[in-house]
Fold this sequence. Notes:
Blueprint: H1 12-35, H2 46-77, H3 89-92, H4 99-102, E1 109-112, E2 118-124, E3 127-136, E4 139-151, E5 154-161, E6 166-173, E7 179-186, E8 191-198
Antiparallel strand pairs: 1-2, 1-8, 2-3, 3-4, 4-5, 5-6, 6-7, 7-8
Amino acid sequence: MPDDQKSFWTTVPGIITATATLITAIGGFVVVLHQVGVFGSKSESPKKMAEMSQAEGNTKQQELEEKIKLMEQKLAEKGGEPDRPSSDPIITAQPKRNAPFQNTAQLGGTWNAPDGSYVIIRQNGVSFTVEQYYNLYGNATRIAWGQGTVMTRKAFIDFIDLEGNTGRSEISISDDNRTMTGVARYANGAATDIYMTRSFDN
């Protein structure tokens, strides 16, 4: 055999082929090591991760539905009102129903004055209207009228009389709601004392 005949592995094509084969083998080995977790934890497949997220979401939704059912059951047992501590500002800050009217004097009805005139009051809450009558020759004649506001045992009336005189009355009501006393002050400076008693017919 001649000395210049060389082996295939010492030629340029042989070297290239051997190098390519070695690189392919190393790449395959690296892929295998990665799959078994040598280069980090083995990650879950996207499909498996999606299944796990869906299962987690279903569990949380079921827990939430159970909590809602439990809350609805408690509300039904308490008559629909949620439990709140007595110190809750939402409760303590709320006024009682009809609180403004609990201590308001009730003036509705007919009131008699010593001069023979009488007053008819129609009350709605803290507001009322007033009409004063006097019997002239057997006929009830309206001699004054107005409207007012009552605050606990005090009343304030803006009035006008038959002759067009205007003024304001300040009245105190007795605790038994049967007597009114006060003063009517006219715009022209005149003043008249007020004393009236509730009619026994009311």
